[in-house]
Amino acid sequence: SSDLMQELIDMDMPVEGVFHNLVIISINKSFPGHALKVMNTLWGAGQMMFNKIMIVVDKEINVHDYVEVAKIVSRHVDPLQDIDFIKGVADILDHSSRTYALGSKIGIDATRKLPSEGQKSSQTEEKWVINKSYLAKTFPKIKEINDTLAEQGISVLIISLKKMRKGQINELSAKAVQENGISGIKFIVFLDSGIDIFNIHDVVWMCGNNIDPMRDCFFVKQNDKTYPSLFIDGTRKTYEADQFEREWPNVIVMDDETIKSIDNKWPKLGFNDFIPSPSLKYNALVKNRGPVNKQNEGF
Fold first, then answer.
1. What single DSSP character describes residue 99?
2. What is the pLDDT tens value at each position of the chain, 299 positions in all?
3. Strand locations in 110-224, DSSP E?
4. CA 123 to chain centre
5. Strand-strand pairing, 225-226 and 221-222
6. CB-CB neighbours of 243 under 10 Å
7. Mind giving me the DSSP string for 184-236?
8. How far apart are CA 47 and CA 208, in angstroms?
9. Could you tell me the pTM of the whole model?
10. Dist. CA 56–CA 29, nearest whole Å
């Protein structure tokens, strides 16, 4: 519409979001709730209905600079007030939605807030605390903890773990908050062990693929109040741990014979430096032979 063209400044669809899972929008904000209005307009427009995660920033923000966007999200988003969820159409290839072709979406309003849009939570001014020694000692299923984004002023913590049972991630999150193992970090992302959580491209790709936002994004309580951090379960879903009944695809990798064949041919192909097969780093995520994970494996 002509109104949307005047509101919408720029758009970026990162390749890690497979072009529809993640979209970053900048707008010419002019009234309270403007970001949410644009989200709902776009979610109802053509193939944008397949989008799963939408981030909206102000017009002066460069949506193609992901570090800048992440810092703006960290600065402007109150997880309790500036994040909205909605049910909606899912891509038919989205394996994470609870139902075929029907899932949910998350909208993150990272614009500057007008006075009528509410007060910030106290967390905005709180010092960020990540007690890695406590987390590793208290939760032995945790494999790795990446707090390097927080060191760069980006309020995101990434944790990989071995998921074993129903409720494990929710219980871990609640205990970590209640015992001050995590404090002030706005977004905490959980991924399966075997994923390189220090490779942010892989983190965004895996998390975007593996979440149905209304099911996998949650808050926890501290002193009977909702703690202002969003926890995101980006692990693969199984029937045993999640009552997830749909098939879950394996990551596509080349077999060892094909990798060896290409490695042997490499010197004759005329390329420059040797490049190891990308499949090697994803083999740990493949639970069985064939295109689909067996639901009773991986625990």
1. B
2. 567 778 999 999 999 999 899 999 999 999 999 999 999 999 999 999 999 999 999 999 999 999 999 999 999 999 999 999 999 999 999 999 989 999 999 999 999 999 999 766 544 446 899 999 999 999 999 999 999 999 999 999 999 999 999 999 999 999 999 999 999 999 999 999 999 999 999 999 999 999 999 999 999 999 999 999 999 999 999 999 999 999 999 988 999 999 999 999 999 988 889 999 999 999 888 878 778 876 545 44
3. 129-130, 142-146, 156-161, 182-183, 187-192, 217-218, 221-222
4. 21
5. antiparallel
6. 10
7. S-SEEEEEETTS-TT-HHHHHHHHHHH--HHHHEE--EETTEE-S-EEEE-S-
8. 17
9. 0.94
10. 10
Record the tokens describing residue 63, joined without a space: 């949506």
Per-residue tokens: 267: 């010197």
| β strands within the chain, DSSP E | 8-12, 22-27, 53-58, 83-89, 102-109, 129-130, 142-146, 156-161, 182-183, 187-192, 217-218, 221-222, 225-226, 230-233, 248-249, 292-293
